[in-house]
User: What shape does this take?
Amino acid sequence: MLQSQLFPKTKKEAPKDAESVNHKLLVRAGFIDQLMAGSWTLLPMGWKVVTKINQIIREEMNAIGGQEMLMPLLHPKAIWGETGRWDKANEIMYKLKDIHDKEYVLSFTHEEIVMDLLRKTINSYKDLPVSVYHFSTKFRNELRAKNGILRGREFMMKDLYSAHTSEKDLMEYYECVKRAYEKIFTRLGFNFKIAKASGGVFTDKFTHEFQVLSEAGEDVIYWKEGDKEAINEEVLKGGKKDYKSAKAIEVGNIFPLGTWYAEKMGMTFTDADGKRKPVWFGSYGIGPTRVMGTWVEVSHDEKGIIWSKEISPFDVHLVGLNGKGYDIYKKLLAKNIDVLFDDRDIGAGEKFADSDLIGIPIRLVVSDKTDKKIEFKMRNSKVSTLFDFDEVVKKLI
Assistant: This one.
């Protein structure tokens, strides 16, 4: 990609209303744009980052038998009335009527929709278990949408749902998903903890959250030295004396929902003895856009973002000075290396400032000073080294 053609251009100043780091940097660097409070456009580079996050999630969901699909975002009132959540979740739902005065809600989650799908398709214990997921938009009427892309009224969510013949089978899969989530957040490079939490409007059972340690977090989690799991502040009982604590950002959650949804919606299957029983149900979510914002909160410096190799919008940022670098750009593309090439006719200082702001992990510089060599520098390092082209390629592949 030629930076002269990249849309949009970087901004020198952050929006006046921006308070969080991710809001300031992602807007300045050209990754997102705010339409209104809680509503964001993923610009081309932002979409590239989220696409890479999604692919990591997708690989781990497929590895545990998840099958990807896509469900509607507009839901009829009747289906939410079956579980009572039309009223119970009223405060966070966006409701509307059509020209025939029929009532609908924009999806804030998809448990009822999956349960309706299951009761249309599942008859016997031989049809179970089922594990399906999708990446889609969620709408939640947040009282105060804030913290940039971390808390929106409209946002992307990966939600996985599983249906089982028994509680034992559900909880075995629940632990399987928990391990898959650990792999996802480890691959993404986060310092995270798994925290026990309440189920909110989803379930009255304890659930688990995946919390990234960050001062920008809205949650407080507690853990004892040596414990694998932490506890969310909202469910911690008694004194807090023996616990360590930290602020954290929730990036994922998993819910063992039991048979409640199936009982409310009449979703039963025939077991091996010919008896009708309700399915055991689980729900598991990760917010990819929230993950992007969280990464920026925990990986930045005073100059800008510092992406990891796994989710960077480009593999390398090639900066050409004095009209140099186009031949190197073409040669890198021929090696299937995804390059952002700064071919703009502006000063070196402005180019380097934009490179630091955008935060691609590797910067290459070609100029009169480098001669036939290429200056190689990691975004998180102050040291640069001169290499020839083949040496650069070895480091990138």
